[in-house]
Design a protein that fits this description.
By secondary structure, this protein is an alpha/beta fold. It folds into 3 domains: 37 residues; 109 residues, 3-Layer(aba) Sandwich (D-Maltodextrin-Binding Protein, domain 2), CATH 3.40.190; 91 residues, D-Maltodextrin-Binding Protein, domain 2 (3-Layer(aba) Sandwich). It is built from 9 helices and 11 strands. The strands form 2 sheets. Strands 3, 4, 5, 6, 7, 8, 9, 10 and 11 form a 9-stranded mixed β-sheet that branches. The longest helix is centred in the first third of the chain and has 25 residues. The chain starts with a strand and ends with a helix.
Length: 243
C-alpha cells in the first residue's frame, strides 16, 4: 500500500487505486444520505455547528422560542472550535466567522460582532492608581484565533497573567481580577454585567458571522425553518451583537 522513502510514506499504485475506490464509495454513500434528507415534514433532526461561546452565551437561550414554534424539529447543536464539515454531513448548518469558498455551500452574513477590553471594578481602580495593565489571553494552541492574534499584535510587550482557550473562562478570569480580557460585547451585556470596559478607544477587532448551509438542503423544510429562524434572530439582536 505504501512505499517508505526518506521523505516519508508514499502511496503505491495499488494504494492509489484503493483510495479512488474508497472515494467513489464515500460519494455514493453521501448521495444516498442526501436523498434521505429530502422530505416535506417539519419534523426530524437538524444539526447546527457554532462556536462554543456563540452557542452557550447567545443561541441556547434564544432557541427555546424555535422549539415552541416547531415542537417536532429536534435540534443538535455542535459547539466548539473544531471545523465541522458540511460536505461530509457532520452538520446541516454552520455559523462561522468567514465565508466559504466551496460552491456547494450557500453563505449569508447574518451578524457583526464587536469586542471590548474588560476588567473587574477592582482591577479598574488599580489601573486608575497607575498599575501597568496585565492581560488575559489565549493559550498557545489557540494562536489561529483572530482575537488571539489581535492581542499579540497590540499587547505583545505586556504580561499575560492568565491564558485559556475559552472566552467564557476568560470572562470568569476578568471577573476574578486576573487582568483585562478581550471579550465579545454581547457576552458582557448578557452574562457579565459586573465587567467594565477599561480601555475604550482602542482599534478593537470585529468579526462577521456567516450562516452556511449545503446547497442541496436549502429547500428541505425542517432545515429551512431553522435557517429562517436564525436569520430572524440575528436581525432582531443586531444591536446587542454590535453594540
Amino acid at each position: 500500500m505504501f512505499d517508505r522513502r526518506a521523505s516519508g510514506y508514499v502511496l503505491t499504485a495499488e494504494g492509489k487505486a484503493l483510495v479512488n475506490h474508497a472515494s467513489a464509495m464515500n460519494d455514493a454513500a453521501l448521495s444516498i444520505l442526501r436523498r434521505l434528507d429530502v422530505g416535506t415534514e417539519l419534523s426530524g433532526r437538524v444539526r447546527l455547528a457554532a462556536g462554543r461561546v456563540l452557542a452557550e452565551r447567545f443561541l441556547i437561550d434564544r432557541l427555546r422560542a424555535f422549539h415552541e414554534r416547531y415542537p417536532a424539529i429536534d435540534l443538535e447543536v455542535i459547539g466548539g472550535s473544531r471545523v465541522v464539515s458540511l460536505a461530509k454531513r457532520q452538520a446541516d448548518i454552520a455559523l462561522r466567522y468567514g465565508s466559504p469558498k466551496d460552491s456547494e455551500l450557500v453563505a449569508r452574513r447574518v451578524a457583526r460582532l464587536t469586542f471590548g477590553l474588560y476588567a473587574s471594578a477592582d482591577y479598574r481602580d488599580k489601573l486608575k492608581a497607575g498599575e501597568r495593565p496585565v492581560f488575559i489571553g489565549f493559550d498557545e494552541n489557540s494562536e489561529f484565533v483572530a482575537e488571539a492574534q489581535w492581542l499579540e499584535r497590540h499587547f505583545a510587550e505586556h504580561r499575560f497573567a492568565f491564558r485559556t482557550n475559552s472566552q467564557t473562562t476568560q470572562a470568569a478570569a476578568a471577573r476574578a481580577g486576573y487582568g483585562i480580557a478581550l471579550l465579545p460585547k454581547y457576552v458582557v451585556e448578557s452574562h457579565e454585567p459586573g465587567l467594565i470596559d477599561v480601555l475604550p478607544g482602542e482599534n478593537l477587532p470585529e468579526r462577521d458571522v456567516w450562516l452556511i448551509i449545503r446547497r442541496d438542503l436549502t429547500k428541505v423544510p425542517r432545515v429551512r425553518a431553522v435557517t429562517d429562524y436564525l436569520v430572524e434572530l440575528f436581525q432582531r439582536e443586531r444591536r446587542l451583537l454590535a453594540s
